[in-house]
Please model this.
Amino acid sequence: MKKTKQLFAALTLMVLGLGSAQADYTLDLMRGVTVISNEVYDLHILILWICIFIGIAVFGTMFYSIYYHRKSMGHKAEQFHENTTVEIIWTIIPTIILVGMAIPATKTMLDMDDSREAEMSIKVTGWQWKWEYEYMDNGIHFFSSLDEASNEARQKNSGIDPRSVPHYLLNVDKPLVVPVNTKIRFLFTAADVIHSWWVPDLGWKKDTVPGFINESWTDIKEVGTYRGQCAELCGKDHGFMPIVVIAKEKADYDAWVEEQKTLAIAEANAADKEWAVDELIAKGETVYANNCASCHMADGAGMPGTFPAISGSAVVTGDMDSQVDLMMNGKGMMPAFGQMLSAVDFAAVSTFIRNGLGNSVGDSIQPSAIQTLQPASTEEDDDE
Amino acid sequence: MSAVTAEHDDHHDHGPAKGILRWIVTTNHKDIGTLYLVFALTMFFVGGSMALIIRAELFEPGMQFVDPQFFNSMTTMHALVMVFGAVMPAFVGLANWMIPMMIGAPDMALPRMNNMSFWMLVAGILLLASTLFMEGGAPAAGWTLYPPLVLQTGTALPFAIFSVHLLGISSIMGAINIIATIFNMRAPAMTLMKMPLFVWTWLITAFLLIAIMPVFAGAVTMLLTDRFFDTSFFDAAGGGDPVLYQHIFWFFGHPEVYVMILPTFGVASTIIPVFARKPLFGYASMVYATAAIAFLSFIVWAHHMFTVGMPIAGELYFMYATMLIAIPTGVKIFNWTATMWKGSMTFEAPMLFSIAFVVLFTLGGFTGLMMAIAPVDFQYHDTYFIVAHFHYTLVPASIFILMAAGYYWLPKWTGNMYDERLAQLHFWLSAISVNILFFPQHFLGLAGMPRRIPDYAVQFADWNMISSIGAFIYGPSQLIFVYIVYKTIKGGTGEKVTDEVWEGASKHGLEWTLPSPPPYHTFTTPPEKVPTEHF
Ligand SMILES: [Cu+2]
Model:
């Protein structure tokens, strides 16, 4: 019933051509929270009005003609079919309008391109299907993927009403945190296929291309949480790799940086301790659900032809070292998880898949053993 | 092998082969035209069904019917089937039927190749459709087939690529045939600047096709060698560049969208004067505008790639060049308006669909102009805003004009009148539902909904639901068209139509000087006079 009502409300709105009834309902581009995003918005409105104005003139003429120059009104057709003056006028006027549009557009374009004098840099890497963030100035490094509540609700026929999930599909486990009033330079690249990093409130999107670095910048003026999504089709879960940017006052941001450093140290310590097999399996189950299940399926059955099964897999039931090697370095569509997972998570999921999902090899591997195999990660070269 | 069906002049005329063989071996332009049109209409419903699957899944937030991978296959296949299976073949079908009759020629210049290009099209589309049943599913990387993503396709990849090759060869052969026909087979009195605009637009389109199809074939062949023969054209690890593919693809892809719209312009320029009972306004400027648009289509491709990370000079150049397209396009829209101005208009189905085309295509043109502005396109790009844009330039433009063409020429082709009341119903249902379907997508895109996603945040729910409702009205209402066509072929309203069919039409086109329906072979001797009212 609620839906019928909503539908009715929306239809009424459309008929009346009116604005929003619901608070979170938008019809237009957002102004955003940077100088650039405001320039973009103004340009958008300018062109929109030019189009509306031309539309009224052209459609007005056409509908006047359709009404008055009808055969049923007894209108006799005139036989003119050329008028050079008129034709020249309606070639020149649009040209002038276009030049008028090109000038502010060029200015905004040049502003957007100027990433000089940035105060900090963040490297963004697109992965199927999560984002990797590396703070080039202080070594903070993490992955950010769809939050668990959305992920559960978005499974086919999950029975969970998306409306009951806060920020459904626009929430992540670990948001990007940045300071306000700071010129931040972003460097974009991708690990597998092309993605596109888009937060509408910043006023732009940029493709992340494997093997290449793209650049963009922002300077957020308001404290707040800004949400976006991957905008370039990147495979199965393209719709499920949101972006959340939290902009904080500088002092709050500095506190967050300190907190992250402490956490990194705690994580490194956790890798050094000896883990019980049960502990590893329990932790591995969560890691599997968050990182592996989207391709290899929650039950490990895989997708025939595209993603191999885990259950009964020759690799998983075979030698531990070759399994770890495959997971560490990737192969084909299988991403290299060596730098994506912490040593603890890596050891946990390696152990879990050998002892769960229908497999029962019975062995396990310790985080400390993984650590020696991992490529140099940011935790280690922290502060050089 | 043949029965004598009709004798005219002193020519010994022979009719079609009997039974199913008539359609398989035919070299007659009218038969091949019919084959193309029937095939295109079938594919319109196949591609449409895929669209309905997409809209069903998007009816509500949450995943209800399909898996994300299959959803991506549907968006990909919907586009490929509609572009290569429905819209392009439909216009080739019209070209086959109408160009010889419009220029006073007995048939197409290369009749056997004509037959071959049709059956190659069928083979290509069947091959493409077969990928739906392959391990790993049909291609799901979007119709643009961008690497590296497309290289993750399963068994289907080489089949899809080979199908593109077949479709490309078919299109090139069709284009060669059209050019050869127009240049060599015109009645002596039919000088180039007396040709109907439908012939002109197709002539220009045919050149576009010959220029671009090999480029697309080359791009997909590079994908093939990257995947199977260890080349790395598009792989940075081997010194290649994934963005190179996008440049090649859009060098094909941008003219390709004009391949679908230029003949649309031609049909609109043919229909509007007849129902306004006036000559077309600005015939010569229509021809020059078409040529200008075709030329510009080759130098604007990277406006599809503003966010890919081009140098600033590239961004600015492609922005300016793209904005220029608005000028010749504007000329066309003004000319159509001026053609209606002070006419004596009636509103039969062909005219209704044509007027709706002018209005709704203009809307699509406006959003196109908005997206030409590179800095703002950073927001619009890859959202539902562009989905709305190109559907406005394809559905209420190309598809509406194809419907208009169907109603306009069906009485000529069959000798029977279609049911005007049902056609009006078809028009109004289509015109209203197509806007319910696509207009809200502008709002979705501006509000931040990316395209090609199977599920969305809840603030997008209402407009998606409305859009889906529009789709579920628009889709089934096209069945009315099938019913009307079927009834018309079977006798229509019962009244026999005149040669002219539409009042004064013979002043506008040679086809209206022929009997309705025209005999199997027409203009075996060229007509001496051609309509000259454009001057
Ligand atoms: Cu992505």
